[in-house]
């Protein structure tokens, strides 16, 4: 629980950090918008590359929401590790099933 | 404490040092709660054959075959359950009793009691009666056997509203309660139960796949959530009974 | 066998020290459990998708990516408002905090309206739940919509808390915010798996 | 019962009056139900489960009017027995040596049991609604009606067990019900248990027209209501005296 002095400053949530988090999330959303199958009028083919990219982007977005909006980065260790493990296991399993 | 005594109501609801805690009558009902659900679970899984559910996507001939192959265990299981069914009222009455002790008072407790007592008919009685009627005359018109199969399974699995109402009032009561009878997180778990009931509405549409009455989402995920909910409730009821002062007066 | 008494966090500090749980631990039980339940839906969706990827992909093409993206931005923005509201509440600027919560709730309502329009458009275009992809689409977004609705009630509770000068407990605001962010988090994953992945 | 003039408008008196009305609704409703049972052709003798479908259909065609009368009356008045059982709930809540948990469990069981009873009338009435339906369908409705009527005794059984427990726990110097009521209640419970098997057997004492499933079961239930009328009458009177509502 005890934080070393100095890190307290770094993990303080400010309006500015929240604003940047939001910008990152919106930029990624707009980027994913370009990737979506609905953009193509002719038949789209499955693409492992695109799917992998989408999962990586989803991972980043989910992590930003968890760490900055939900303040998990300054929360107890069990929660930081728990949410990280959950996210990696979920998206890893998604990719695994996709490839299988 | 001797192992035999640990299995009695007085050995089940105890203080930390093993003395019987709370009120003796509440101890009995609290002790009965897991006992009844255990029996119920064993019978519906091993004898009555409704859990895991038989498939919705089978032909009429298959449904007739299902009843003729499992006729004996279905009859045995459901007759025993018709006798034991009152246990459902006893377990739900116990939850209503604990809800009445909350600072939210009677109104939500009565709502729980009403929702659950109405739910016994669509949620359980009908499937028992349908399956017993089907096995009573296996030589009946196969179409009618098929009808009883569907009627029983759909009412058993998709009796949504009674339980949704009960879970909702339970969640509200726990969230507003200031007497800390049940922990707050249990209210949130009850909300999941509502979500699984909402998803179970899809059972009336699908013959197969994840949303059919034997589907991975509408049935199996719901079973896991229900088991977690029930397991938590068993522990919580025991703690609530043990924490109740033996001389606490009853509210009217 | 005493009851578990939950330590409510000290509310008056503006800076968040390391190792502090934002909001109520009971709400975190809900959030983590909900993430696991939803994960099971996602994985079952993927299993069915991998059995018939072509038809899932064809059906995905019929989704309205514009509305999906706009809704994502709407929900992300509402999350930002809720997060700002927590900051304001910590700083004691309760009027500002209430304003942020209202803004977030407005975004939530907008999300539901857009979702309703999207559903109506899909159904009238003949994409009913007789298609496997669309049955997942309706159930998963439908359950998510129920979460948004509950979230609006939660935000209402937060507003009442902030309006009452005798209350204004920061941990209550944080608890509500935690729930709302979870709704956002789930949507981001739904967006990736249903709308974008190929 | 003569309520004292000076307490006429007090809540205690209202409580006693309401219980008194519900108590007396018991014999009144019981009488109507007896008439309905006497008028229902399916009870004299109880229809045999071994009847072939054609004969079941003919039975409904020949006795349509009386079947309708009997079951409509059951439907209307069957649930009217519930207020009588509510007097038992109220008296259980007065018992000492226990919390209200038995009373609430009893209440839940009464409500569930009443819904079961209501369902069986509907099946009888639908069968009689169009007796020219295919005989197989009439037989199906008849089977459902009889099984729902006779077999689901779980809710009743739990009521008898709960009442027995409550009486056993009532340890005050002046118990609400005399101790024998608990044993009598248990005995009634034992008497009705075998009728659950009516959903399986088509002949013998366990079939729904059999000695155990029909006559013993329904006889024990009727006797219980009669006995409880007198037990409750005594209990409510004694409550009235204790509350100062009537002269002691």
Automatic annotation (TrEMBL), chain A:
Membrane-topology annotation of the record: Multi-pass membrane protein
InterPro entries to which the protein is assigned, alphabetical: Cyt_c_oxidase_su4_prok
Compartments reported by the entry: Cell membrane
Assigned keywords, A-Z: Cell membrane, Membrane, Transmembrane, Transmembrane helix
Pfam family, one: COX4_pro
Cellular component, GO, one term: plasma membrane
Keyword Transmembrane helix: yes
Protein name as annotated: Prokaryotic cytochrome C oxidase subunit IV family protein
Organism this protein belongs to: Mycolicibacterium fallax (Mycobacterium fallax)
From TrEMBL, chain C:
Top-level taxonomic group: Bacteria
Subcellular location per the Swiss-Prot or TrEMBL entry: Cell membrane; Membrane
UniProt xrefs under CDD domains: NorE_like
Biological process according to GO: aerobic electron transport chain
Cellular component GO terms, alphabetical: plasma membrane
Membrane is among the record's keywords: yes
Reactions catalysed, as given in the entry: 4 Fe(II)-[cytochrome c] + O2 + 8 H(+)(in) = 4 Fe(III)-[cytochrome c] + 2 H2O + 4 H(+)(out)
Entry keywords, A to Z: Membrane, Transmembrane, Transmembrane helix
Principal place of residence: membrane
InterPro entries: Cyt_c/ubiquinol_Oxase_su3, Cyt_c_oxidase-like_su3, Cyt_c_oxidase_su3-like_sf, Cyt_c_oxidase_su3_a-hlx
Topology of this chain in the membrane: Multi-pass membrane protein
GO molecular function, one term: cytochrome-c oxidase activity
One Pfam entry name: COX3
Gene3D superfamilies hit by this protein: Cytochrome c oxidase, subunit III, four-helix bundle (1.20.120.80)
Family label: Belongs to the cytochrome c oxidase subunit 3 family.
Protein name as it appears in the record: Probable cytochrome c oxidase subunit 3
TrEMBL record, chain D:
Name this protein carries in UniProt: Uncharacterized protein
Taxonomy of the source species: Bacteria, Bacillati, Actinomycetota, Actinomycetes, Mycobacteriales
């Amino acid at each position: 629980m005890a934080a070393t002095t100095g890190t307290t400053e770094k993990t303080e949530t400010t309006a500015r950090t929240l604003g940047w988090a939001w910008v990152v999330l919106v930029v990624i959303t707009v980027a994913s918008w370009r990737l979506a199958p609905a953009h193509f009028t002719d038949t789209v083919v499955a693409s492992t590359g695109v799917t992998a990219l989408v999962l990586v982007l989803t991972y980043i977005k989910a992590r930003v929401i968890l760490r900055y909006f939900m303040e998990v980065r300054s929360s107890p260790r069990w929660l930081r590790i728990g949410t990280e493990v959950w996210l990696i296991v979920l998206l890893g399993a998604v990719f695994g099933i996709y490839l299988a | 404490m001797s192992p035999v005594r640990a299995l009695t109501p007085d050995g089940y609801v105890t203080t930390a040092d093993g003395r019987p805690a709370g009120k003796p009558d509440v101890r009995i009902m609290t002790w009965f709660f897991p006992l009844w659900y255990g029996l119920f679970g064993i019978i519906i899984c091993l004898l009555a054959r409704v859990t895991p559910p038989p498939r919705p996507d089978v032909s009429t001939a298959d449904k007739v075959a299902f009843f003729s192959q499992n006729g004996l265990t279905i009859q045995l299981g459901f007759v025993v359950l018709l006798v034991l069914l009152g246990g459902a009222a006893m377990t739900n009455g116990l939850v209503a009793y604990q809800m009445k002790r909350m600072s939210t008072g009677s109104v939500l407790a009565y709502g729980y009691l009403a929702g659950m007592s109405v739910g016994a008919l669509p949620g359980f009685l009908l499937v028992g009666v349908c399956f017993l009627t089907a096995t009573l005359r296996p030589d009946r018109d196969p179409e009618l056997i098929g009808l009883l199969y569907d009627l029983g399974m759909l009412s058993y699995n998709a009796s949504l509203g009674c339980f949704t109402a009960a879970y909702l009032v339970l969640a509200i009561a726990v969230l507003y309660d200031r007497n800390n009878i049940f922990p707050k997180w249990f209210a949130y778990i009850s909300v999941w139960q509502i979500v699984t009931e909402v998803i179970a509405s899809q059972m009336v549409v699908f013959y197969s796949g994840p949303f059919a009455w034997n589907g991975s989402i509408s049935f199996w995920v719901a079973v896991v959530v229900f088991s977690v909910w029930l397991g938590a409730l068993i522990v919580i009821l025991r703690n609530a009974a043990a924490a109740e002062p033996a001389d606490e007066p009853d509210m009217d | 066998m005493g009851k578990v008494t939950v330590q409510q966090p000290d509310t008056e500090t503006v800076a968040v020290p390391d190792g502090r749980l934002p909001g109520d631990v009971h709400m975190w039980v809900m959030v983590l459990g909900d993430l696991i339940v939803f994960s099971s839906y996602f994985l079952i969706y993927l299993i069915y998708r991998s059995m018939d990827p072509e038809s899932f992909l064809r059906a995905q093409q019929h989704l309205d990516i514009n509305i999906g993206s706009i809704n994502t931005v709407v929900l992300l923005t509402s999350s930002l408002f809720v997060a700002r509201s927590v900051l304001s509440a910590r700083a004691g600027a309760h009027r500002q905090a209430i304003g942020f919560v209202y803004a977030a709730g407005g975004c939530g309502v907008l999300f539901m309206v857009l979702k309703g329009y999207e559903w109506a458009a899909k159904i009238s275009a003949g994409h009913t739940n007789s298609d496997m992809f669309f049955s997942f689409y309706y159930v998963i977004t439908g359950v998510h919509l129920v979460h948004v609705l509950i979230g609006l009630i939660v935000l209402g509770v937060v507003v009442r808390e902030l309006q009452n000068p005798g209350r204004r407990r920061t941990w209550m605001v944080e608890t509500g915010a935690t729930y709302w962010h979870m709704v956002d988090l789930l949507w981001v994953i739904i967006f990736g798996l249903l709308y974008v992945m190929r | 019962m003569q309520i004292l003039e000076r307490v006429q408008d007090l809540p205690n008196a209202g409580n006693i009056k309401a219980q008194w009305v519900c108590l007396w609704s018991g014999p009144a409703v019981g009488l109507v139900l007896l008439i309905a049972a006497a008028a229902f052709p399916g009870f004299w003798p109880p229809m045999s489960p071994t009847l072939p479908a054609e004969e079941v259909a003919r039975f409904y065609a020949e006795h349509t009017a009386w079947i309708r009368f009997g079951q409509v009356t059951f439907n209307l008045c069957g649930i009217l027995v519930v207020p009588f059982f509510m007097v038992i709930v109220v008296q259980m809540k007065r018992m000492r040596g226990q919390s209200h948990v038995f009373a609430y469990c009893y209440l839940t069981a009464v409500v569930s049991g009443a819904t079961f009873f209501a369902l069986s009338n509907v099946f009888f009435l639908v069968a009689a609604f169009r007796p020219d339906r295919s005989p197989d369908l009439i037989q199906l409705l008849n089977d459902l009606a009889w099984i729902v009527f006779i077999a689901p005794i779980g809710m009743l059984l739990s009521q008898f067990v709960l009442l027995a427990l409550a009486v056993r726990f009532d340890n005050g110097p002046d118990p609400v019900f005399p101790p024998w009521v608990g044993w009598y209640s248990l005995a009634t419970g034992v008497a009705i248990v075998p009728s659950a098997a009516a959903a399986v057997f088509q002949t013998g004492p366990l079939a729904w027209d059999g000695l155990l499933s029909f006559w013993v079961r329904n006889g024990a239930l009727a006797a219980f209501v009669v006995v409880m009328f007198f037990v409750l009458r005594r209990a409510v009177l004694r409550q009235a005296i204790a509350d100062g509502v009537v002269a002691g």
